[in-house]
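To: structure subgroup
Subject: Chain for Friday's discussion

All,

I'm putting the inputs and outputs inline so they're searchable in the archive.
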Amino acid sequence: MTPSLPPLQPPTPLLLTRFAFLQEFHVICFVPMAYDVTEEMATTCSETTYILSKQINASMASSSSSPSSSAFSSRSWKYDVFLSFRGEDTRNTFVGHLYAALEHEGIYTYKDDETLPRGESIGPALLNAIEESQTAVVIFSKNYGDSSWCLDELAHIMKCRDMIGQIVMPIFYDVDPSEVLKQKRKYGEAFAKHELENKTKVESWRKALVDASNISGWEPKHIANGDESKGIKQIVVEILQKLHLATSSTNEDLVGMATRLQGLRSELQVGSGGVRMLGIWGVGGGGKTTLASSMYDEICRQFDGCCFVENIREESGRYGLGKLKEKILSEMEVNKARGGRRLINNRFRHQKVLIVLDDVDHLEQLKALAGSNDWFGDGSRVIITTRDQHLLTAHKVNVIHNIRLLNDDEALQLFCMHAPQDNRPLEDYEKLSKGVVSYAGGLPLALTVLSSFLCDKDIDEWKSALARLKEIPETDILEKLKISFDGLKQVEKQLFLDIACFFRRRYKDDAMKIFDYCGFHPVIGVKVLIQKALITISKYGMFNMHDLVQEMAYHIVTGEHPNRPEKHSRVFGKDIAEICAMDATTNFDMIEAIYVEDHAFCLPEHLPPIVANTKNLRWIKWRGDLSSPLLTNFPPRTLCCLILRDSPQTQLWEGYKALPNLKTIELYGLVNLIMTPNFDGLPNLERFILQGCPSLKEIHPSIVHLEKLVHLHLEICDSLKMFPRILGPKKLQTLSFVNCGELFNQHHNNMNNIGFGFFLKDLRDLNLEWCDLGDEEIVSAVWDLPNLIKLNLSANKFSRLNFSHLQLPRLKWLNVSWCEKLVELSELPSTIAVVYADYCTSLESVGDTSNWKWLWYVSLEGENKLGPHVGDMLLDSMLEGNASEDYFINLTLKHQVPKSFVGRLFSGRTITLHLSDDWYNDFCGLSLCVVTEMRFLYVDIVIKQEVDKDYLFELCHESNEAVEPEYDGTTTRVGYISFGSLRHTTLSNSSYTLISVSLVSMHEGKSYFGAQLVPRKSKRDQPQTTYVASDGELDIRPQPFKIIHDSKSSIKTTWRF
């Protein structure tokens, strides 16, 4: 018997498995119950709008699972609900209304409208319909037991419940459950007849009735005070919940999905008011669509209408955004697509809707499909998946959810789902499987592709495939990842390829200079690459990226010539040895950059003039012998950056060379270098570094003609005695002579000697450490540096440093550490903010500090001869200065404790300060003191509301007696954090009642510390809050002082010494 199909309905997650054959379409929608589907709409839907997501089909193919039955969860159901009922009792009344309500909710329901003559058995078609239904709703009415057909249905339903975990829901319509359970009254009369006509089935029918009536069900007369319409709505809601639990259990069976859904739920805040847009962002193939679709499946029934729009990037490119908009509007029952944005705005502003916009890659798509929160009704949610974080920030979404890749255990689980299923020993594949997991790096796309490919291969084929992957990456994976690369501007592509090939796991700041010299505009470029999920910056400031993203970059660089490195745009690694072994006449015009960092590859003893044969070389970083002289025939006028290390050249090139684009030269460890090249052909040189060139004796005088020179650094050039007087470079900002003592020796009577005079108006940073500067050099110094901010004079020999005759009106940073003969430091400019004077063993005086109004950091670590009150004098100066209101203070001392902390130090690990009602107006900040023998400590400061009573009870019973520190081997660190520096947080929240300060260390050792509030300057006579000491353990956060958490309930900051 062929069942009649229900009226045309838009598909829902619960119906997806019925449309698994429609793989080529890409939109799924749910039509709100409140709106009727017209014939025209049904026709349109049948032709264009039953458009399903491939990703959803895949994830929902095994939807509708029972939490307790794996067989149930693995089935594909044809129907959501099977209705078993006695037609003459309820077909045109209760069942008819229930069926309509289920269909309106998009629940695909089987209702048989045929009537069998009494005594006939149900046919195979009906039995199949029962078995293919996820849920069976049995409506027991007065005459239900009279029908052998109904009883056969019920017996088969209960069998399916036992065998495959089918959900059974009984409804007792106008009949008492006890009558069914005990076969009384009408049911008793019916079974008396059955005893005579169907003796062989009676026992199975009785058991089915007993089992079914023992299941918790509904009595419509007891629901909504007997209002049948309201009662049916309530029943439908509960059926939906049952179906949802089965469906969501399938989603959560996806590897790692349960924990990821949990995090997404908390961010979506479904059920709360307002409109909320959430963006799911991350690398291609990372599981964004799977996560979004799983969440959609879980929550879609809680909305008046919902729509999942998949693959917007591809669909809008193929058909245009207007066409895509028409499809969406059509699905959401807007008959006219013209004026689409206005119609969406008007249509849904009073509706609670759920919309998923998948794979968005242009801001215009968001503006057209979800322009603003005002377009949607209260409680609506919009989920956006994208590879571009910028789109989400530009659209001002409420939350950006960064997709989390699979960990090793999850990845192995996903991969093993497709492991060989025959009798081959799985242990043989364990090591190989871990190799695949390592290669995939937690990327679900890669694991799925590779597991599908390897599932039917034997162990030797696995080994061969894995070996091939190392040489030839899987194209299906790389092409998916390459979508993000294709969306970049040309300059961003160049930047990305340089990072991937040369600078992964290297410090960002070092690389940014090279990128800047190459004209890549790296500040904005790196930001774009991060937003596109192509690169990341580690907490240590290093570039990083997914292994397969780097593989994709290599694939792009090698292009169609993977085995011909001379055809590659970037050459590095093992390809270096290959190009060095090529004929000297080889054309290297395709090469833009060369990078040789170490000696891992054997290079020929006599190298060909590689650089001379390139015409488009942008930059080269080479370690080892390149050729001598380096560039005999030097045609690459495009060269921007030249970095050489450990090369044996005595000179770079002879005579004049025109390199108009060269912006940086960095030479490290060129121990044979005697003289620098002629700079006249380098009009745009901005950066020149010489480090570890002990044979260098002369800097070419043409260096004074470099008008664009910004950074000049010479280090460990022991033989350098002559340097042209630096007057020419008009833009010089950083000048560094480190360990170049001969250059400043006053005993050399040479007119070319630099002497100790500097007249550079734009200089910001001057470094003269380890230059053997004595009192004679300091006294003769004539400086006119009106914009100098940073001065490093550490490890020199002078005994006094008086700034009264030095023109340094803007100096803020000074380092005189390890000046062991320094006795007096005086007359520092009033602008000084940071002073390092560590291990100045002879230091007796720092002069008058009362004028140091900007001072916030002083370090006096190690032994010195300063008096016992210097610490108090410095701390008072800092607290009286500008830092007390708007910044923070750091003071490091040896064997001293400021008087304000004498008798106030504790050996515990936590101090709690209880705040008065007007604390924010009374106090300007928090002062801390730590005496410790440990070098690596952290202080966590939490400002929060009152803790619970149990915790307060514990605090009150802690010992709060101060202790006298043991100073042997310890250092005193004083810190201060102004409340003004936290004004952008919720600090002014009047509900905060205490500050908890905790000392955190990874190692054991002596430590004592204290904390106290600092009154504002105008209220010095105000009493400070009381404090209680307690112990506690907190997480260690190896980061500099920063805000860790900011909410209405608390603010947490961490201060690292």
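Points worth raising on Friday:
Residues 61 and 153 are 27 Å apart (CA to CA).
The chain has 33 helices and 39 strands.

D.
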